[in-house]
Amino acid sequence: MDKIKANTTEKKQGIGRPQIYIDVEILKNLASIGCPDYEIASVMNISAKTLTRRYADIVEQYREKGKASLRKKMWDKAVKKDNTHMQIWLSKNYLNMKDRTQTESINEPLPLIIDAKAEDIDG
Q1: For 29-85, how does the pLDDT look when each residue is reduced to its tens digit (9 = 90+)?
Q2: Which of 62, 114, 115, 120 has its CA 20 to 30 A from that of 92?
Q3: Nearest to residue 46, comparing CAs of 14, 79, 16, 23?
Q4: Strands, DSSP E only, in the chain?
């Protein structure tokens, strides 16, 4: 397994925090499934700040790979498996297509109907 130190600065004579080694493969897998920084940091037993400071490039790279993988699966399902629902979803999101709705606007006032009898007025 590929492991790297969470804290890359060298400490002399044991002063400072102990070195933490993290499993980069786990880091890559968590990032590729879209886990937020705080979840990755929790699993890796480091702070979210350390994750961002030390591993932002790895996290970003594998998040983008995860998105590309998901996009490919969606595309395959829509096209190769002829999934109409996925085709509609993709067309709305990537082609800016919308469901057509018919709306009518009436710009003239409604007719005024007065139904009064003479006996109602006289009282």
Answers
A1: 999 999 999 999 999 999 999 999 999 999 999 999 999 999 999 999 999 999 999
A2: 62
A3: 23
A4: 3-5, 21-23
